[in-house]
Amino acid sequence: MSLLRFDAAGCISDEWGIQPAQTNALAATLLGMRNEWTQHPSAPFFRWPENQFSAYLADRTDSELGRVFKVANGLHDHIDAVVVIGTGDVTLGVKAMRDACSDPYHNELSRAARGSKPRMYFAGDRFDNDATASLIHRITEGGYGDSPAEKRWAIVVIDPVGQTPETAVALRQFVSVLERSLGGEADAWLPRLLIPITSANSRLDRLAAEIGCQQVFSVPPELGNLSDDLFRVLSPVGLLPAAMLGLDCVKLLEGAAAINDHFIATDYADNLVLKQVAVEHVISKHRGHPTAETNVWVDALKTAARWRDRLNQATTPSHGKLINHITVDQDRQDRLVVGKSRRDQDHLNAIGDQTLTTLNRNAIQAANDQPKDGRHPTTQTIFPTVDTFVLGQWFQMSMIARALRHELSLKT
Description:
Helix content is 46%, strand content 11%. By secondary structure, it is of the alpha/beta class. It folds into two domains: 5-41 and 253-411, 3-Layer(aba) Sandwich (Rossmann fold); 48-248, Rossmann fold (3-Layer(aba) Sandwich), CATH 3.40.50. It has a five-stranded parallel β-sheet, with helices on both faces. β2, α5 and β3 (119-123) form a beta-alpha-beta unit. α5 packs parallel to α10 (236-244), α5 packs antiparallel against α13 (302-311) and α11 packs across α15 (388-411). The longest helix has 24 residues, at 388-411. Keywords: Gluconeogenesis, Glycolysis, Isomerase. This is Glucose-6-phosphate isomerase. One of its GO terms (cellular component) is cytosol. Its EC number is 5.3.1.9.
C-alpha cells in the first residue's frame, strides 16, 4: 500500500535562500534523535498503534479495540444517531475521520443508504444556547423512518480529565433529553446508550458508575499526561466514534504503524518525516518563523488539515507564510467532465471534455507558478488516495513531526 509523499521543491531554492545543504546538515542530529526514539520512545503516542493492535490480536473480546468493536457493532441495529460530546480539540480528530472517510452527506442519507450506521452530531465545545437547543430539537425528531431504532440515539462523551465545564453541562442536558425519550425503557437502555471515555475516578467516571454504564473507556494511562488532546486521536477517543460510523479502524492503526516503520527504517534522504521536520526547521530559522498555512485542494481533507494546524499552532511571533498544499492522486468517485452544452455563453465548451481532476491539478500548478512577489515558499503533501489507511499515516506523521520539531528546537 502506498505512503504519503512530501515535496519541498517549492521552498528549497535560491529564490527563498534555502539550499539542500542546509537541510542535509541536520541529518546527523535528526538520525540521532530517531535512534533515541527507537530505543527509548519519549513520546507515549509513538508505539500506541502497534501496541493497541497487538492487544487486539491477543484478545479480540476484552482488549480496548475489541471492546470498541463490541460497542459499535452492538448498537448499529438499535440506534439511528449518536451525539459526541467533547471540546473542540477532543472531537476534531473524529470530525476529520468522518469528513475524510464517510459520505460527505452521511447524515442526510436514509438508514438503508448508511448501512444502519448512525448519524453523528457534536456538542459540548462551548456554552452555545442556540446550537444546543437546535441539536436537541433535531435529535428528538428521530430518523427518516418509523422503526424503533430510528427513534433511539446514543451519547459518546469524551472528557479526559472528567470535569471540563462545557462538556459536563452539555452531558447533563443531553442525558436528560435521552432519558425522557426512552420513557419506561430508560432503566434498561440508558446504561447501554451512554458511553463515557474518561480518566479513572474522575467526576465523569463516578457519574457513569451511578448510572450503571455498561461500557466505560479509560483514557490510556500513557496518554493521560499529554497536554494536547489532539495526540489522543488514535486511542478510543477517536476510534470509538470512527467505529460507530463503520470506518476501518484496523486500517487506521495499520497506516499509523506503517509510518512508524518508515520513520525507523528509511534513510534520511527518503524519510518522509525527517525531511519534513528538517525543511520546516530550516524555513523557520532562516525566514523568521513564517506562519504555516494549509491549502487543501480536496474538501474531504479540510478537517484533517485543520486538525494538523491546531496540532502545530505556533506561539512565537511570525514573519511571512509557508504554504503547505495538500493534494490527492486518486479520486474515489468516477471522474466528472465539465460537459458541453448548447448554451455556451460561459465559453466552457472549449474545455468541455476536461475532467474536474484535470482542472484541479491545473489550478495547483498555477498557484505554484505565481510571480515571486505574489507568492510564498510552499511544500506539498500528496495523499495517494483518501481512506483510513492513509489517514492513519497522516495522524501519526503529524504527531511525530510535531514532537521532533519541539525536541530539535531545544537541541539547536
